Amino acid sequence: MILELADIRIQPGQQAAFEEALHRGVQSVISRAQGFVGYRLRKGLESPERYLLLIEWATLEDHTVHFRGGPLFAEWRAIVGGFFASPPQVEHFCQV
């Protein structure tokens, strides 16, 4: 299993709308992606415009090839992309 960590910075004052859109986007779009296992969202306390989105994928390729390279990615970005202050920083982790 692979953990995707997306470090997201949003526009100030948009927290409630972003959180609703993110949950809706995961439930309606990402959940349909091949290899999607689950997700968690964490919000910064010192930086309330900073979020960590943690998504579990069955394989790295499920995220990087099948999701990012397929039509679902555009659907996802249409829902949440307008909130981003800058492009999310994404890294992948494996269990050791």
Automatic annotation (TrEMBL):
Among SUPFAM superfamilies, the record links this protein to: Dimeric alpha+beta barrel (SSF54909)
Which of UniProt's keywords are assigned here?
Monooxygenase, Oxidoreductase
Q: Which residues cross the membrane?
A: none
Domain named ABM: which ranges?
2-93
Matching entries from InterPro entries are given as: ABM_dom, Dimeric_a/b-barrel
Name one matching Pfam family. ABM
Domain of life here? Bacteria
Reply yes or no: does the keyword Oxidoreductase apply: yes
One MF annotation (Gene Ontology) recorded for this entry: monooxygenase activity
Gene3D superfamilies xrefs: 3.30.70.100
For this entry, the protein name equals Antibiotic biosynthesis monooxygenase
Q: Which species is the source of this protein?
A: Paucibacter sediminis
Tell me the organism's taxonomic lineage: Bacteria, Pseudomonadati, Pseudomonadota, Betaproteobacteria, Burkholderiales
